[in-house]
Amino acid sequence: MSDCLFCRIVAGEVPATVVRESETMLAFRDITPKAPIHVLVIPKAHHENIAALAAADPVLAAHLITEAAEVARAEGIGDGWRLVANNGAPVGQTVFHAHLHVLGGGRIEGL
Ligand code: AMP
Ligand code: ZN
Fold first, then answer.
1. Residues tagged active-site
2. CATH number at residue 27
3. Torsions phi, psi of 30, nearest 5?
4. Domain annotation covers residue 23
5. pTM passes above 0.90
6. Per-residue pLDDT tens for 35-60?
7. Which of 79, 80, 81, 86 might form a disulfide with 93, Cβ 3.0–4.6 angstroms?
8. Would you say residue 78 has pLDDT above 80?
9. 99 alpha carbon – ligand 1 mean position (Å)
10. Mean pLDDT of 94-102
């Protein structure tokens, strides 16, 4: 999906501040953070949103959640953090490649 922004980040065609990576997932800082800590956790494979990913590959969907917890711990917010996944434009999904928002470290705005 060469027209997908997050596929292009996975391919290294668009720069991102990567904080964690596995064979199947990537975690990088949100470019417009809504909280002091705001990291996006994405599958390397293209799925339109987290619900589509869970339907197609539930093992990978679960992997993203355990990796999100590792990101939170590594970022120093393991004691309390929020996981957000927008499914569909009506609730504000703007990038149609599945992603989890890991948020914490202070006030969370606009999600
Ligand atoms: P959503 O609104 O749930 O689809 O979330 C998309 C998120 O991607 C937003 O929080 C954006 O700030 C973030 N975003 C957009 N472009 C980039 C980029 N190039 N690098 C990192 N994060 C991005
Ligand atoms: Zn994609």
1. 99
2. 3.30.428.10
3. -65, 140
4. yes
5. yes
6. 999 999 999 999 999 999 999 999 99
7. 86
8. yes
9. 9
10. 98
